[in-house]
Predict the 3D structure of the following.
Amino acid sequence: MNHFCHSLVRMLVMAFMLVVVGASVMAQNIAVVQQGKVTDRDGNPLSMASVTVKGTVTGTYTNDDGRFSLKVKPGNLVLVVQFMGYESQEVQIDARTGHDLHIQLVESGYTLHGVTVTAKSKEQQLREGAFTVSALDIKSIASSVTNLNDLVSRSSGVNIRTDGGLGSNFDLSLNGMSGNSIRYFVDGVPLSTRGSGVTMANFPINSIDHIEVYKGVVPSKLGGDALGGAINIITKQERKNFVDASVSVGSFGTYMADLNAQVVLPKSGILVRPQFSVNRSKNNYKVHNVEVWNADEARYDTVTRRRFHDAYENYNAQLEVGVEKKSWADVFMLGATFNQTDKEIQTGTIQSIVFGKAERKEKALGLQAKYRKDQFLLDALSLNLHASYTWDHSITVDTAFQRYNWNGTYKEQSRNELIGRERMYRHYKRPMATVRGNLNYVVNAQHALNLNYLLTRTGNRRYDTVEDYYPYLKDTFEPTNDVILRHVLGLGYEQNLLEGRWVNSFFLKDYVNKVTIEQNDTPLITGANDVAKKTTKNTLGGGFGSRFTIWEPLSVKLSYERAQRLPQARELLGNGSTTYPNLKLKPEQSHNINLGVYGNWQMDQKNLLYYELTGFWRKVEDYIHLRVNDNDGTAQYENVNDVTTKGLEGEVRYQHGRWLQAVANVSYQQSLDMNKYLENGGVSATYKNRVPNKPWLYSNLDLTLTGFDFLKQGDRLRFNALYQYVHWFYLSWEGYGYLPSKARIPSQHMVNAQLTYSWNQDRYSVTLECDNVLDKLAFDNYKLQKPGRSFMTKFRVYLR
């Protein structure tokens, strides 16, 4: 309780400082605040448009919603609005009226010293910010995207590995940090608020505007306790009626459908946003070189078989109702979400152990509210609030005393499939409450302050109803109720100096983690007898990001964070099936440093080259690593005392007009166990070993060709080809066993291709996609085989 009180005091002090600084600045500048919005001709907001008072140095930039807030002297004046690729506009106003301005800019292909200047996209602006960020435009290519993970994995420094086909677990790596070290957000709110069944792999693509990938250093405005980076999914925020629907059909019994729509009621201004998606697959692809028993010859034969117990079915639904642009709220929305997932379990973490009856079921229902108000109490202060409560219920069914093989047959045994114990129909109810508050104060065009607070409370009520099916098992499992409560407070300060050439961001973070544990079964494995039932820990972190532009082709970036990550529920408490709890897990802490250069080179009117080269260094204490038992396929997270990761990543983008774009990137990383001595004083066998089961060299080559007015005016033909390379890596620690005979995941070469035809100004489109064109044998986590060659067709209708 004392830790929480101290954190609360710190929060109040920082909030007081924020208001005092804002009030003092306002007292020194007798002025009025002029607000407005800058859009293109279609009403789409233009972010980072320049708004200045003519004849002065007073100015600002628009935010992601195209809005600006500018302190000016009362009276008549002229605002100059500029955005690259658009005609500049001068607007005469009377600042005393306080009217909200709506300024529309018209596109232009103006030239500067003989070179055509084009507008910088939001994604490019993010790349040129103070932090190391990859930004992916989803909105413009939504017709061509069938799998979000595949798109994200094309970014430099990003590698995504899956356990199988659609709906399988996946592991995302950013600059050597992976798994739960990466946090996921939707519009700045944790993705987990939508339920455990919602992941980046099944998130409705049609609802996404763009994706931000933060590497190593994460700004305080996102909250959370990301150690290695963060993925922030930004959804579309349009104020117009539209219907966006798509259907995809593909190999291995795969079917996907998305519906995203919005209705604006003209009289009341009420917005209604329904959203629905379904994802289904049999995942019955072939696996090669698996062993089955040949009874006639009394030997094991190496054969090819199909996966037979890996079906996946997922439903997502969301409904939001609210208003915008009211005197009391710029945004006020109430929403409900529903998610249901049914997943058969074919294997554990290794392919040689096969399951035939075990399955996992998940349901989640959530309620949420969000509120945004500009000019909150102070003219330059904005407030964002989010509150949600999610009822998450998962069931692991493992009641068969049968041992399966890849022929789909089985032998009776005296234990269940997943963990080799008694039958179970195990329930995990994990209700989650989330509160996020964000205050942003724009001092002027050069300075801004931000205060962010995130609270998450996750329960973990376990009980078993196997007795309903097997009465003799009554009272064989003791129900428990565990709780994880977290507070993360962040204070940020941003600078924009030298007319945007020098951008800085500084931040502090305060973490409070309170854990209440009741479970005490299998104490020798989980450590239940070695930990206090209630613990509270409080730590501080912080960092900065800086970018300086020497000239357009050369900018330098430097960022640092002392990061902290608290163990997630599934790491600490297990996943209810093949991963045991580890109640002794410690939080991870890390020093993260990024240093890089980037630049744009406009060679002539049609040719543009962008490059980026970044070096990174991570020193992690108590690194949380998944250790797998090769004998039975079960796993458990454990701490590795000292892991150091360093590496390089580079990317080159070339664009020729509108019809050709080529992207090439490569990532190299070295993650080593730097803990030389064991607890007993002996030398560790894994000292200076690479962390196993983790790719350390990989690259992508992405080529896109686009033809406009291909068959008729207003249509478009887009071809995309992707080549991905992953160098071989060891499956387990190099220091254990005889090195030449150690299992390793071989080098992989993957080629994917895609063709999209759209017409009637992108209202209709059809996509043909082929993954693993060469039908190469490919592996991922723990040498689990990925699907072979597969095909997908997507049809999309976008009416607006």
About this structure: The first helix runs from residue 2 to 28.
